[in-house]
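Run log, item B.
One chain of 264 residues. Sequence copied directly from the ordering sheet:
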Amino acid sequence: MSRRTKAPPRGWQFWRRAFWTRPALLVLYGMLAGALGLLALADVPDGIRDAVAMRRAVECPAWTARVEPDVDPPKGCLERIPVTVSGPWHSRGPGSDWHLMVEQDGEFVFFAETDVPTSGSRRLSDDAEAEALLWEGTPVAIELPAGDRVETEAWGHRGWLQTLFLGMFAVSGLPMLFQAARLKLRTANGWWSVRGEKVGLMVLSPLMGVACLLAIPSMLGLVPLMLGLRLQWVAVVALLSLGLAIYAVIRGAGAVRGRPDGEG
């Protein structure tokens, strides 16, 4: 029995015509990734100021504590609220999502949710009574009856560091996708062509070097941050990975220059 051949794609079946790999669209993807990354990086200075103010803040007066989450939270101080911990509702590997419930009219109602790193999630249990500390409406710590304090991902400098690493990783997509579009365009029939060679692992050009310097430290720096390790370990891993990226870029650039027919 002869094997049936696949019918060629029709004009409207763009997903079967390698639509997403057109050089013009690769440039567009890069611009979108870069714009999102720059927007994230623009929030980092505010995050640093917020982290410093949070760590220096005192607790709010007891009379300012909210009973309902819809009420505007107090500003400039740490709000303490008795809660019941519920979860984990969503485990994403390094860390989990927990709900904070408060009692109203004999029933437990949802008050807030927070992401807790892996090390902290292991110290929490479902239906445990605790006190939550909130900074301007955002849960930043959970204090258990035994005096154990579990910090969330929003506490202190963790928040802006996570934004920094995610922004760096997004910005790395800009030079990487520009380089992909450049290589694709060499063998395609124009910016809107689907023809040309597939773009896989790319030569370490100057654009790819910039992408590596942004992507490698940000990816590896996120690992200890999301695991809930101390910030000293986050700094060590980020600096070591930056050094590794610099070494790889220098070695790769030397190898490209040493090729008689290679281009950067």
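Observations after the first pass:
- The first helix runs from residue 23 to 42.
- The beta strands are 78-91, 96-104, 107-116, 128-135, 138-143, 149-151.
Flagged for discussion on Thursday.
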